[in-house]
């Protein structure tokens, strides 16, 4: 494997199916552009005469659209920005905080990352979309699923405050799991 000598940018992007690493090589003499997602080459272009521009590719199981913008700052200095679904990485992640909940937990020596997509009520665990069963309960709803031989559910209860909306809590083996901040 050739060493990544022209590596100019690395980003970590948390999506429902996991945290993905995006690496970008830009040869400012050859114009070479290489994009890696999770260590796998997605795009390779050799000998590009135009040193600025953009490269678009997809990330993760849901094939989320990502674009690397290459802009000249001054002389031979370049700036690299990553957009996810047409938003800057920062804006995308801020929006994700509002639309998803993430929990990190350890069960029987294994680590799990559970993500709830609030708009669809899809539940992901370690990159897999889970089979779920929803049920109405006295004070809200429960979305049941299993992780290994552990029974889990996400309880959705109204906060009673309009600004806060619905509070989602992950319960595993009758234990509440604190939400993770990514």
Topology order in helix (H) and strand (E) letters: EEEEEEEEHEEEEEEEEE
Number of strands: 17
- Uncertain regions spanning at least 5 consecutive residues: none
Helix content, binned percent: under 10%
The helix/strand class is mainly beta
For the largest sheet, list the strands in their spatial order.
13-14-15-16-17
Shape: elongated
The major pleated sheet works out as: 5 strands, antiparallel
**CATH class of the largest domain, please?**
Mainly Beta
Total count of domains: 2
**What is the CATH architecture assignment of the largest domain?**
Beta Barrel
> What is the number of helical segments per DSSP (H or I, 4+ residues)?
1
* pLDDT averaged residue by residue: 92
Beta fraction = over 45%
Query: What is the CATH T-level topology of the largest domain?
Result: Lipocalin
Q: From the alpha-carbon coordinates, what is the Rg to the nearest angstrom?
A: 20 Å
Ends apart, CA distance between termini: 31 Å
Family: Belongs to the FAIM1 family.
Keywords: Apoptosis, Cytoplasm
InterPro entries: FAIM1, FAIM1_dom_sf
Function: Plays a role as an inducible effector molecule that mediates Fas resistance produced by surface Ig engagement in B cells.
């Amino acid at each position: 494997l050739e060493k990544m000598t022209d590596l100019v940018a690395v980003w970590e992007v948390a999506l429902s199916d996991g945290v993905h690493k995006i690496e970008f090589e830009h040869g400012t003499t050859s114009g070479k552009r290489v994009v890696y997602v999770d260590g796998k080459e997605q795009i390779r272009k050799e000998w590009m005469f135009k040193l600025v521009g953009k490269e678009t590719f997809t990330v993760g199981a849901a094939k989320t659209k990502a674009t690397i913008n290459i802009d000249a700052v001054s002389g031979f200095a370049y700036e690299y920005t990553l957009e996810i679904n047409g938003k800057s990485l920062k804006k995308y992640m801020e929006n994700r905080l509002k639309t998803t909940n993430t929990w990190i937990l350890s069960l029987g020596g294994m680590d799990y990352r559970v993500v709830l997509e609030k708009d669809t009520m899809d539940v992901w665990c370690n990159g897999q979309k889970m089979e779920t069963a929803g049920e109405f309960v006295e004070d809200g709803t429960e979305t049941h699923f299993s992780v290994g031989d552990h029974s889990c559910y996400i309880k959705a209860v109204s906060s009673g405050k309009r600004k806060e909306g619905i509070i989602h809590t992950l319960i595993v083996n009758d234990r509440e799991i604190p939400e993770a901040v990514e």
